[in-house]
Design goal:
Elements: E1 9-13, H1 18-29, E2 33-38, H2 43-46, E3 53-57, H3 65-77, E4 82-85, H4 106-133, E5 137-142, H5 155-175, E6 180-187, H6 193-196, H7 201-209, H8 213-224, H9 235-246, E7 257-260
Parallel strand pairs: 1-2, 1-4, 2-3, 4-5, 5-6, 6-7
The structure holds NADP nicotinamide-adenine-dinucleotide phosphate.
NADP nicotinamide-adenine-dinucleotide phosphate binds next to helix 1, strand 2 and helix 6.
Amino acid sequence: MDLQLSGRVAVVTGASKGIGLAVTRSLLEEGARVVAVSRKNTPELEQLAGPDLLHVSADLTDPEAPAQVIARAVEHFGGLDILVNNAGGPPPGITMPRTGFFDSNDGQWQAIFEFNLFSAVRAIRAAIPKMIERGGGSIINVSTGMARQPASVNVEYGAAKAGLSNLTKALSEEFGSQGVRVNTVSPGAVLTAWWTEEGGAADVLAGMAGADRQSIMDSIAPQMMGQVTGRLIAPQEVADAILLLASPRSASTTGADFAVDAGFVKTF
Ligand SMILES: NC(=O)c1ccc[n+]([C@@H]2O[C@H](COP(=O)([O-])OP(=O)(O)OC[C@H]3O[C@@H](n4cnc5c(N)ncnc54)[C@H](OP(=O)(O)O)[C@@H]3O)[C@@H](O)[C@H]2O)c1
């Protein structure tokens, strides 16, 4: 299937690792031009270097940064068609999962909302006028199954992402007639640095469950997350759903939430 993404300009946040890296690689393979945003570059992202890829180093928790990133994309590639608000998860200094509501103070709630909700709000605010100038565009917000199925282990994160999912539907209504589509992709547990890095989710759960980190990733975490496939999700599986939503092939899909959660959310 030709996704008709050749020559289109995309901004992907959190592009140096995990889901964002898979999205960036796939967009480039489809002939898109990509502005990849993260604080630091990685060898994996550097391997994709070429005329169609621009890495912009930015800390998206800085309120000025999202608009600066969008402006840089327009300046470099001449416009904007696709925005993937993928950066999210635990902000610097916070490890997730957590143990419950009393585990976090105001500052931590605010940091989680800044990173998971407000950075996307600011990027969208800057992106929509640029998309409308070109007759429309596609915004994909990466949410989580926990936005619809709350869990006490990540209560602030789930609340922030529920805000993102709600915002997505509101925007789809307001800007649909101007050609801007807005959708969410909501993953279950995905095998990324969030899980694998030292001190990451696998280590935290290993401590809680009294198990080794490999067993957590191989079987315990998928079981805890109700993933009926019995394994963590591959980043590419999430990226593939994002690419379909980025593509004009999904021109009548807006305000939708695509679950890539291996059966975690059971509600309609
Ligand atoms: N992994 C999961 O199990 C899972 C499940 C459900 C939903 N999700 C969602 O999927 C999205 C991607 O998660 P992931 O697991 O693929 O992430 P990841 O592998 O941990 O990668 C995070 C990316 O975000 C960047 N980043 C982190 N802090 C940043 C900041 N302040 N400013 C700019 N960039 C920043 C990182 O680069 P730098 O550190 O260099 O900045 C990196 O490129 C998130 O929205 C997350 O909530 C993930």
